[in-house]
Write a structure and sequence with these properties.
Blueprint (H helix, E strand, L loop, with lengths): L1 H8 L7 H22 L5 H9 L18 H13 L1 E2 L3 H10 L3 H15 L2 H5 L2 E12 L8 E12 L11 E12 L2 E9 L2
Helix pairs in contact: 5-6
Length: 194
């Protein structure tokens, strides 16, 4: 009787199906582990990207800009620099403005700097812009906290082209946002409207 019990546990042709499937699953698991061990191991971020289909990037650097004593002063300095440039220095001016702002304004200046740096016609035409800030006023309304309207008077010239010859100065309107930071005010939004 005891010998018959041992025969049931064996792996012969008369072994129960459940035991055979269990042994098979164990063998398959062992093979899967062996295959996984033989694959090259990906570094941490690449392994995460393989699993999630997203590459984890480092957190962006914290944005800091020199705060000004008042919202109006922050906007006046920013707008004055924004409207006065030449083809030779416009990209550098925009990068300085990006460093002097935060949030959407910083992103907008970085994007514009990249665009004008790649514009061959700007430099070839000797294009320049000159202007003055004529008004800065709070934007009134239920969702207007920290938002201002800036009016500038600007004219564009071209030293190597007749494209802007005879062009009169034009009025432009920008909606800007400021926020309190570090005991003062910084430009956080910049949206030219005309």
């Amino acid at each position: 009787m005891l010998a018959g019990g041992c025969a049931l546990v064996g792996s012969g042709p008369r072994a129960p199906a459940a035991l055979t499937e269990g042994a098979r699953a164990h063998r398959l698991a062992g093979r899967a582990q062996a295959r996984a061990a033989s694959r090259p191991r990906l570094p941490g971020p690449l392994a995460v990207a393989q699993r999630t289909h997203e590459y984890p990037s480092p957190a962006p650097a914290a944005e800091h800009a020199r705060p000004r004593a008042s919202a109006e002063l922050a906007l006046l300095l920013f707008a004055t620099a924004y409207v006065n440039w030449t083809a030779d220095d416009v990209a550098a001016h925009l990068r300085v403005l990006a460093g002097a702002s935060v949030g959407q304004a910083r992103s907008a200046m970085q994007l514009q700097a990249a665009q004008v740096a790649a514009d061959p016609q700007l430099r070839a035409g000797g294009i320049a812009n000159h202007g003055s800030v004529e008004a800065i006023a709070p934007l009134y309304g239920s969702h207007a906290a920290g938002r201002y309207v800036i009016v500038t008077r600007e004219w564009t010239t071209a030293s190597a082209s007749a494209a802007y010859q005879g062009l009169l100065p034009a009025w432009h309107v920008t909606v800007a946002t400021v926020r309190r930071e570090g005991g003062g005010w910084v430009v956080s939004g910049w949206q030219p409207e005309s």
